[in-house]
Amino acid sequence: MRKHLKSIALAAICSTLLGSPELAGAAEVKQLIAERTEQEYGPAMPNNGAFSIRMAQGAPAEAEYLQEFWVDKDTGQFIANVVTALGEIRRVHGLAILNVPVPVVNRRIQPEEIIRPEDIEMIEMPWARVHSFAITDVADLNGMQVRRMLSAGRPVHRQSVIPPIIVSRGERVMIELQYGPLQLTAHGKAIGDAHLGQEVRVINLASNKTILAIARADGMVEALF
Length: 225
Prior knowledge:
Layout: H1 2-18, E1 27-28, H2 29-41, E2 50-55, E3 62-63, E4 65-71, E5 77-83, E6 89-105, E7 120-126, E8 145-146, E9 161-162, E10 165-167, E11 172-179, E12 182-190, E13 194-195, E14 199-204, E15 209-217, E16 220-223
Parallel strand pairs: 11-16
Antiparallel strand pairs: 1-3, 2-6, 4-5, 5-6, 6-7, 8-9, 10-13, 11-12, 12-14, 14-15, 15-16
């Protein structure tokens, strides 16, 4: 009897130190499904995407591996057979939702305003709700000028913002012409709008001729010849 009690005590100590043998090698079912879904998506999955797994009530939390797996990439619905640590095969189903971090503005921004860093926040959003023309990199949003009103918390369409206009149509500008060591300046008038580095036509007020120039700074253009 005493020997039997010692065996039970030793088993209890081993279980405490090493963990339950039934859970050895077990992993979260949600993690197994997320990894398998990533494999199914392959190159089509965005680099910064991650899956959020929702399973039906009663599904096992842990399993050894997935025996069978199927997912509908359009809806995210999946079905899987999982093998538990006891060797049981359990059928689980649910949704695998692909989320990506997306920069959005945190307030309503009117046309002509410049987007500042404090106007931007990152949110997790289902990939299915992010259209192909949405801005997904914060660097492509910060410092841009708004063309169409932006609503808070929504992905920003690329056509809704432009680089800041530094030369406006009808604005008086300074025309610079540099040729080697020679540098000339003249007063002009812009015929169109232009952002930094964009071509714009201007009228040389001294000669009344229209020339092509590059917007270099606020109210300043470099003549092309």
